[in-house]
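seq:
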Amino acid sequence: NKLLAQEGYDTVVFDSLSRGSPSTVVKGLFVKGDLSNPNDLHALFNQHTFDAVMHFAAYIDVGESVSHPELYYQNNVSNTLNLLHIMVKKGVSNLIFSSSAAVYGIPNTIPIQEDHPFHPINPYGRTKLIVEQILGDYEKAYGLHSCSLRYFNAAGGDPEGLIKNYNLKENNLIPIILKNIKSSKPVTIFGTDYPTPDGTCVRDYIHVQDLAEAHILAMKHLMKNGGVKAYNLGNGKGFSVREVLKSAEKVTGLTVQIQEGQRRPGDPAILLADASKAAAELGWKPQYPQLDRMIADAWRAIDHL
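struct:
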């Protein structure tokens, strides 16, 4: 909402705060409410008029989705249906949906293009795919235009340092490394014998500021052209686990304690995005592709904790 405000848009942030903090809402209006409560949604849409909705309110922990799938199907799918219901009822016809590379599962080809087969291997990925399929049906039936943005590995923080990261339960590699550095806990490398240059998994990291820019470009494109769209968002360049660890030590000036573990089931050796479609159709190009910059911004965002 900070970037939207800078571009002149009025914003309303609707959040239950079950996994967030109102302190991250530095611009626009904040309304506390829950997607599981239709009354909250009716009140929101009765009090405000919207041209577009950006939907970020999913649970995103893959491991948790495996151990508690009900939470994920309820929040990520059922609650999204509540949102779509009120949007259709109120005639709000543009939705930007935060999807995920998890819809692809284990890749057949690298880098991954948008037409790659869908084979999600966990409930989290399945919930994202289900919603994308629902959005296709809603466009045909109700004229609800949508754009699904398939993130690869979101990283970094507010480049200006204004927005802090209050999510203490993140399970992505970079936040884990930085928080473990602060608490002097070891970081486990899950698998050191992959067919990669240094034996550890390679992932495509994308700065959150670049993700935010993509959302605004997607919204403008959708409002002008309509339809149902999907785009990969990644740098197309991978960094291994050991490269991320080395960068974290360089940025923080601290030593990471490392312990080596076995591979985790379902972890592909390499995941890389082909984001050429977003470049061609949205005019999107990552401005912060450097790993050191992503880690530095992430470090600044959690340094208060």
